[in-house]
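User: Structure please.
Assistant: Input sequence and predicted structure:
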Amino acid sequence: MGVRSRPATRDGVQASLLLLPCMRKRLRKKKRIGEFKELCFELHADLRDGIANAELSAFVDRLIDAVEARQLAFAGGAGRDHKLNGVITREGRGSTTEDDRAALAAFLASDTTVVQHEVGDLQDAWHG
């Protein structure tokens, strides 16, 4: 077996990223890299103890309304463990923004069902 080495870098940039200008636009779009990179962020929240199923359902409805009002999509859920975990992406193609993060952080902070919350940083939705 040969020794595995790290990808070649130039000034700390991986060689695969240096090849982007040589890659056809159609392929960059298909792979969602370069100018077609899409960003998302994670949501985590602890919900109030003793929350009834009807209250939990109403909270999830409010969250989905807030998400859809910004043309975003939510993948995740809230359960009987009193936790909300999920990922927020742009509906269709495109990226979430810092404004989207701030708006959902404000929503979670203002909702009485949420005890504490964390909104993750923007990250590449397809390649981590």
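The first strand starts at residue 9 and ends at 10.
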